Fold:
Amino acid sequence: MRQPIPEPLTALVEQLSRLPGLGPKSAMRVAMTLLKWPESEARRLGRSIHDLRDALHICSRCGGLACADPCAVCADAGRSRDMLCLVAEWDSMLALDEGGFYHGQYMILGGLLAPLDRSDADSLDTERLLDRLAEGEVRELVLALGATLEAENTASFIRRMVHDRFPHIHISRLAQGIPLGAEIKYMDKETLRQSLQYRQDMA
Ligand SMILES: [Zn+2]
Structure:
């Protein structure tokens, strides 16, 4: 008879293997590593996971994760309230804000729509967006959803939805084109097409 894997280990491996990038084999490797950790470290990790739900809030203004509601960005009176930047996920907001060059507000959409499919539009947080725009402060909505097919599809969906209800709100998107330091000859056709389409006047 084969030696059965002890139940607590099976349970942990089963849960770990649901994490992104971890299959059953790597989940087992993680579990074995955790077993080798000093007990205090392993317990600390367990406690962090346990406390995550209690310690974190979803900001009711932007949908971001924070220790308080509203989050520090939404509560910051120094940020302009007439510009709203729409991102797909919270980590995109972090990346944009890290630069320190944007001083408006954010809103997290909660995902993107698959190309040619509007059936999953309910999965997006469009209510929060429409409620926010209805407050009347936002004059420009910046779509920062990325340059994938999903992002394009979502951007045109949002653009139409917002334009129908709030035609006075200016809708813009992040520029698309050639990244800094890149050479034309190495660019793919679609990037070149968009770079030409969104070309700028030279100042
Ligand atoms: Zn917020």
Remarks:
- The chain has a mean pLDDT of 90.
- DSSP finds eight helices and six strands in the chain.
- The two ends are 78 Å apart (CA to CA).
